[in-house]
Amino acid sequence: MFRVKEHKDKEYPKSFSAKYNTDKLVYFCSYDSIEEAIAEEKRIKGGSRKKKIKLIESMNPEWEDLWELVKEW
């Protein structure tokens, strides 16, 4: 959750998310360990754009910003 807030607040002005104003959370999942989370992040990043869109739309077909949902956890 903390990383999402950093993106929303543009904590790092030279970052990709600040530069391209990409601060909308459209997909998320949680894991028991950081190792699992990192492995999944690498798997997703290594996939095609088509696969990423399919993954997002399987959870969030309207591409709504899920930040409000997540920050209440």
- Main beta sheet strand tally, sense and closure: none
The Rg value, from CA coordinates, equals 13 Å
Runs in which pLDDT lies below 50 for 5 or more consecutive residues are none
Instruction: Sketch the topology as an H/E string, one letter per element.
Output: HHHHH
The helix fraction, in percent, is 55-70%
Mean pLDDT across the residues is 91
SS element count, helices: 5
Strand percentage, roughly? under 5%
Structural class: mainly alpha
Record field, number of beta strands = 0
Global outline: globular
Give the termini separation: 9 Å
Number of domains: 1
What is the gist of this entry?
The chain has 73 residues and is mainly alpha-helical. It has one domain (2-71).
Task: Describe this structure as you would to a colleague.
- By secondary structure, this protein is mainly alpha-helical.
- It has one domain (2-71).
- Helices cover 56% and strands 0% of the residues.
- The protein is built from five helices and no strands.
- The chain has helices spanning 2-9, 16-19, 34-46, 49-59, 67-71.
- It is globular, with a radius of gyration of 13 Å.
- The termini are close together.
